[in-house]
From TrEMBL:
InterPro entries: CARKD (IPR000631), Nnr (IPR030677), Ribokinase-like (IPR029056), YjeF_N_dom (IPR004443), YjeF_N_dom_sf (IPR036652). (6S)-NADPHX binds at residues 62-66, 123-129, 151, 250, 298, 345, 413. Its cofactor is Mg(2+); K(+). Binds 1 potassium ion per subunit. This is Bifunctional NAD(P)H-hydrate repair enzyme. NCBIfam families: yjeF_cterm (TIGR00196), yjeF_nterm (TIGR00197). Residues 10-208 form the YjeF N-terminal domain. The lineage of its organism: Bacteria, Bacillati, Actinomycetota, Actinomycetes, Kitasatosporales. SUPFAM superfamilies: Ribokinase-like (SSF53613), YjeF N-terminal domain-like (SSF64153). Its EC number is 4.2.1.136, 5.1.99.6. Coiled coil: none annotated. K(+) binds at residues 63, 119, 154. Keywords: ATP-binding, Isomerase, Lyase, Metal-binding, Multifunctional enzyme, NAD, NADP, Nucleotide-binding, Potassium. In the N-terminal section; belongs to the NnrE/AIBP family.
Length: 471
């Protein structure tokens, strides 16, 4: 897992470490790591550090201090380094002295040309959007300069990934000690570029994880593998309640996802049986014993009773998606014994929370936590960085494999079938949701290969995604 910790947790670990180290030691480690990444970028971009034009955007706190000390290191290697302060009266004094001693200079405005801009305006001490003085500097970042963000892009909230107003968009973010949730969650995540983690010696063992991003090995460990004693019931039968006269395709796609999710069998319940069977003759039709239900894709309106029937089966895991989420009763969900996984997109989440869609998009992490808390169930919030929150609080999972190509009709239906198959195999709500999102994202990338993709191709690419995760 790639783990991210809250600002509060990082600060506590920093305090503990600082108490044992000479003053300035942590900042020196941070600056050394930052300067090394900057030097690497300059060497890659223009062959050498010597003679490079480097601009430091310097805020009033320690984030600016990191930038100044790193700038001093680059100046000692022959770069021309100019620091531009947000507030000339408030610059880290030690950092400023180091930069000056190394031959760097301070200017009131951002130079028109630069090879590299170091964003040291705000780090984990930043609150709210960039104020006008900082925003004015960001606007002047010269076109063509590589942008390296110190700890996080200024204007991105470290804990939530929220971006209130203007913010830096970095090519590389050099973060210290630990990932912060805002680096992995949109809208912040799309501002960070490549993330480089610099070890400054923080001890976070046993600290509460705020957000975690599974990697191949984590997902591989979750995926069910049939054994010699498996039969179709042991592998899990998924019941899919989906599709309508108007949306038969949703049924086909949800079934496709379920079949490729390792289910022993898929049972289809609904009015699109002909369409489903024409495509997948292996599907069972009609009610019967299942190990998990998927309800909702393409149901249309007026089908609440079918959703209620699945949820009433309180010992069987249920995934509720799309139309099934309409007016979903929190009391019913909370009363269930087996896992429940809700898989809304931002619009559906907004409707459940009674807020505007934009509110969910701007505060995705808060929204998914709030929904999971209200329903006491795992919630998977779809989007560019899909999030999965546990019903009982604790670490939220963020999916690192997503691709914008997956924003295509029917893609969510495939995901719900896939996650339902994993529920049927015995995974809990968060594990099923996050493993499904991971495979689905990979399949989307494989199927797209940089070109538009349709949902059935995503389903068809799922076996390749499984294989790549297991390799
Ligand atoms: N604490 C530590 O041990 C270490 C901290 N490090 C660096 O220190 C940073 C945190 O430093 P600070 O706590 O000084 O905080 P920051 O440097 O992130 O910023 C705090 C300052 O910015 C101002 N500010 C806050 N929000 C603003 C806004 N929206 N617009 C304009 N000004 C705003 C505040 O008034 C405050 O003066 C980290 O992100 C990291 O870069 C590193 O040197 C590693 C070690
Ligand atoms: K920054």
């Amino acid at each position: 897992m790639r783990t991210a910790y809250s600002v509060e947790t990082v600060r506590a670990a920093e305090r503990e470490l600082m108490a044992r180290l000479p003053e300035g030691a942590l900042m020196a480690r941070a600056a050394a790591g930052l300067a090394a990444v900057c030097a690497e970028l300059l060497a890659r971009g223009r062959g050498r550090v010597y003679g490079a034009r480097v601009v430091l955007l310097v805020g009033p706190g320690d984030n600016g201090g990191d930038a100044l000390y790193a700038g001093a290191r680059l100046a000692r290697r022959g770069a021309g380094v100019t620091a531009v302060p947000m507030d000339p009266e408030r610059m880290h004094p030690g950092g400023l002295a180091a930069l000056r001693a190394a031959g760097g200079r301070v200017a009131a405005s951002v130079p028109g040309r630069a090879d590299l801009v170091v964003d040291g305006l705000l780090g984990i001490g930043g609150r709210g959007g960039l104020r006008p003085a900082a925003a004015a500097l960001v606007e002047r970042i010269p076109a063509g300069a590589a942008v390296v963000a110190v700890d996080l892009p200024s204007g991105v909230d470290a804990d939530t990934g929220e971006v209130a107003g203007p913010a830096v968009t970095a090519d590389v973010t050099v973060t210290f000690g630990a990932y912060k949730p805002g680096l992995l969650t949109d809208p912040g995540a799309s501002r960070v570029g490549a993330v480089r983690l610099v070890d400054i010696g923080l001890d976070l063992d046993g600290a509460a994880v705020a957000l975690e991003a599974p990697q191949h090995a984590d997902v591989a460990a979750l995926l069910p593998v049939p054994t010699a004693s498996s039969d179709k019931y042991r592998r899990g039968v998924v019941g899919v309640v989906a599709g309508s006269e108007q949306y038969p395709g949703a049924a086909v796609l949800a079934v496709a996802g379920a079949l490729r999710g390792g289910a022993g069998a898929v049972r289809y319940v609904g009015p699109a049986a002909d369409a489903v069977l024409a495509r997948f003759p292996e599907v069972l039709v009609g009610r019967g014993r299942v190990q998990a239900w998927v309800v909702g894709p393409g149901l249309g309106s007026g089908r609440e009773a079918e959703v209620g029937r699945a949820l009433a089966d309180t010992d069987v895991p249920v995934l509720v998606d799309a139309d099934g989420l309409r007016g979903l009763d929190a009391g019913v969900v909370r009363g269930r014994r087996a896992a429940t996984l809700l898989t809304p997109h931002a619009g559906e989440a907004a409707a459940l929370l009674g807020v505007a869609r934009e509110t969910v998009e701007a505060g995705r992490l808060a929204a998914v936590r709030e929904l999971a808390g209200r329903y006491g169930a795992a919630v998977l919030l779809k989007g560019s960085t899909t999030l999965v929150a546990p019903g009982g609080g604790g670490a939220v999972r963020v999916n690192p494999t997503g691709t914008p190509w997956l924003a295509t009709a029917g893609s969510g239906d495939v995901l719900s079938g896939l996650a339902g198959a994993l529920l049927a195999a015995g995974l809990g709500g968060v594990d099923a949701g996050s493993a499904a999102a991971y495979l689905h994202g990979l399949a989307g990338r494989f199927a797209a290969g940089g070109a538009p993709v349709v949902a059935q191709e995503v389903a068809a690419a799922l076996p390749r995604a499984w294989r790549s995760v297991r390799d």
